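Re: [ENG-882] Designed sequences occasionally contain unexpected residues at chain ends

Forwarding the minimal case from QA. Structure tokens:
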């Protein structure tokens, strides 16, 4: 599976990554790449991050590769949204796009073998995978700035996420009448793709 990420969207939807961006765009981008790299080492998915070059970007689209992550900077006058849409249209493989931009998500979800996931939901899932895969220690997390002084991951936070209403209401055994909700084939495929994370 190929995961395509709307870079600045994910940074700005994340309470943790946004803290790094306060000190400059470059620090925010580096924190995101380290976070994704820790995940990629666990799962091995191909990951491409697309950053906006709309206003102050390079004259031509630039590509880079860091810590196993492909990085694309859109050229000046082009939005990351346009690059992502172009990639989704051309790619023959199974794709999961990470964005909270409804315009991109709608575009992606209309295509076969393509699914979009909200940035915060993706971050929650990845944080859980990273924390369950290996314990974070200062020694084991060398060079990963998502590690706090105590050795725990700053990405292991529930801060900024709304509580699920079901968490607050005690569940009772209630028999519901009528047909159960069935998911369409497309919905089942999208859920299966997200499960691959």
């Amino acid at each position: 599976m190929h995961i395509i990420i709307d870079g600045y969207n994910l940074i700005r939807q994340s309470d943790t990554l946004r803290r790094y961006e306060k000190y400059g765009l470059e620090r925010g981008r580096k924190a995101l790449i380290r976070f994704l790299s820790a995940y990629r080492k666990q799962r091995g998915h191909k990951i491409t991050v697309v950053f906006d070059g709309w206003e102050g970007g390079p004259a031509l689209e630039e590509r880079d590769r860091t810590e196993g992550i492909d990085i694309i900077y859109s050229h000046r006058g082009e939005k990351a949204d346009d690059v992502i849409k172009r990639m989704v249209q051309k790619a023959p493989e199974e794709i999961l796009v990470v964005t909270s931009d409804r315009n991109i998500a709608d575009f992606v979800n209309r295509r076969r073998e393509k699914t979009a996931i909200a940035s915060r939901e993706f971050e929650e899932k990845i944080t859980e995978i990273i924390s369950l895969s290996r314990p974070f220690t200062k020694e084991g997390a060398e060079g990963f700035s998502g590690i706090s002084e105590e050795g725990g991951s700053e990405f292991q936070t529930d801060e900024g996420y709304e509580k699920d209403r079901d968490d607050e209401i005690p569940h009772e055994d209630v028999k519901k009448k009528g047909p159960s909700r069935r998911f369409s084939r497309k919905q089942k495929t999208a859920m299966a793709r997200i499960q691959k994370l």
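QA comment: On inspection the terminal residues look reasonable. The chain has one domain: 2-161+186-195. Proposing we downgrade this to a documentation issue.
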